[in-house]
Amino acid sequence: MFRPRFIHTSRTILNRNLTPLTRVKHPEFKRNPSFAQIENKHLEFFKTVLAPNNILHDTNPDDTSSSLIPYNTDWFNLYRGSSSLCLFPTSTDQVSQILKYCNKNKLAVVAQGGRTGVSGGASPVFDEIIVNTSKMNKVRHFDGVSGVAVVDAGVILESLDQYLEPKGYTVPLDLGAKGSCQIGGNVSTNAGGLRLMKFGNLHGNVLGLEVVLPDGTVLENLSTLRKDNTGYDLKQLFIGAEGTLGLITGISLLTPRRPKAVNVAMVALDSFEAVQDAFVMAKEDLSEILSAFEFWDHDSVGVVKREMMQDTSYPIEGKHAFYALLETQGSRLLENGVAMDGVMAQDAKQINAIWSWREKIPESISKSGTAMTYDVAMEVPLLYKLVEDAKDHFGKKGLLGPGNLYSNLLGFGHVGDGNLHIMANLDGFDHDGQEAMDEFVFDWTMRHNGSITAEHGVGVSKVNYMKRAKSDVQLQLMRTLKNAIDPNGIMNPYKVIPDK
Amino acid sequence: MSNPLRIFVPVKRVVDYAVKVRVNPAKTDVDRNVKHSMNPFDEIAVEEAVRIKEKSPKTEIVAISVGTTKSQETLRTALAMGADRAVFVEVKDDSTLQPLAVAKLLKAYADKEADKPDLFILGKQAIDDDANQTGQMLAGLLKWPQTTFASKVDITDRILKVVREIDGGLETVSTKLPAIITTDLRLNEPRYASLPNIMKAKKKPLIKLTPEDLGIDISPRIQTLKVEEPAKRVGGRKVASVDELVDKLRNEAKVL
Fold first, then answer.
1. Does the pLDDT of residue A9 top 50, yes or no?
2. For this UniProt entry, which segments traverse the membrane (chain A) (predicted)?
């Protein structure tokens, strides 16, 4: 069951103070000198391809009142580029013409959708031209028997779900940003979200893609077939490639049947062991009907209450170390002797309210100061230990707590997927503080054989860690593929794969 | 210290407020094959009764529902929120059940009870028919005072003081029990049913009755002829000149 959007789609940046430019914050990134600078002749060309209202140009994009600010800046206000040009194509053919031209003229390009990414992958680092898919937003086709939907990349996830609802289907992924994120971006980042444990990830649910390659060639691979073993499965290359191999313009997506009844319960637990026990019990008791199992710590409740839910009372009284949200599709009651207390939603309003306490955590962190957000994967028993060790490490140095360098530090996430989100608030834009936390979290994760990003992707935020997260062999193979498909390197440069 | 109160709270099982309602193909009703839950105003009524009970623990709360067999789930929710016992009046087909019949059934049940209720707290209206009649009709049948659209309730020594939301603002009325209260949105925020209370609710008494047991004829007085969706909004158009506008207003929209 889908719920109304929780993230407002206002295009204003959350904090009053705009983050410093990425190139200023991260001087280690050097603009590739082989890329051209935008000149009038380029603009004249784009005017022959796109209608004037689909071209946004500003020669002074760094000015805080520039119309390009929302497109240059990411949602968390951590990364800001200096692109002077944002294009809004309305067809695959236009995208093809744009990329062909950019490739020929060595103009770097950044693909952009709903701008809800948390790794800075959709913001320019320097002056890359932004190609925004928002105006390619049609549902092309839907087959009511197989449940396969063929859509433009710019379709907003929640809009697609609302389209599917009367037909009895649902999108296979659900995330807090659903009111703004676009399906093309979801596929490019292999987004996970709240329902992964039930529906699996996009590598399985995407049946076909239509991609414009860096030289403008259109790769038409929009199969609606559930099974097709003819040759290399090319679409898998682009799923999760974060726009570095091509620009996805169309997606063929397998959508599951919409559940008739959904039940949501929230339980209180006093230790992370109890969270794991509850998860095991829930799986035993509820098996296939368990559609989500999320957890969060007590600090998360405080931040959400303060920033976004001041007028709503928290469903469970008392102070408990952890809370878990269980969602099932079906009407079996959860009986769980491991929980200290718990409530069950009695109607849609309560279901939405309980989900809010989980879904609003990232937004509350953004409202509470400069957000630092990590999403690491590791084996479930270790999931919360990272938070405990981080609190210990920085607490001992007196850096934690209101008024200090890190004013909030909390953990929550998808227990079933072994995916922890650890988030913190940083004082201002203290670069050393950001680096210290990055280093601690990533180093800890790698030492414990985890992944430094379970679902958020590398973007620009973690590219400097890729040499430690992946072996030379792995990185070299990635570079080989990248160079073969994008020899001029114009697609989303400076991201995902580090230079040698 | 006043005698413990006995509060009756009628609750109705309705299409869940978040469901996108669609008209059925026969155009006789909306599609009822969707999620149902307790009428939101009735949740507020149960919550208010439970808060009164928290202040005076000897208060007895009786939840009552008239409907098909699934209404028992709604009664279990009321019990899980804190009602003490439940009464289920079963009807075969609830699509023709109307406020007057419900009000008569409630009065008949109240008359039947040896221990009379001191107070009925009802939701001001159900979100499916928006009738806003049952509380008022019940007051008429019982000849009790009514305090409708309550946004604040106070009971001290059997004097009921209620702040009502009316068009002009807020009105405070005072009356003696027994009386009827109907709840408005801002009266309170209903609690969640806690898992322990859901378990306890399974053991609370729930009795079943029929309209025949109460000697009430529930046949409808009003017949629904047709149910339709509102006309779809047609998109606006841009015109090139005032002349064109006048022409369209005269010849197409026919308003000049």
1. no
2. none
